[in-house]
Amino acid sequence: MKLPRTILMYPMTLASQAAHVVMRLQQNLAELVIKGDSTLENIFPPKDEKPEWATFDEDADDALEPAGAALADGSESDRRAEGRFALYSVADAPEATDAPAKSRQSKKSEVAEPPVAVELDYPTLTLAQLRARLQSLGVDDLEALLAYEQATKARAPFQTLLANRITRANAK
Question: What is the dihedral of CA 103, 92, 118, 133, to 10 degrees?
Answer without folding.
Answer: 140
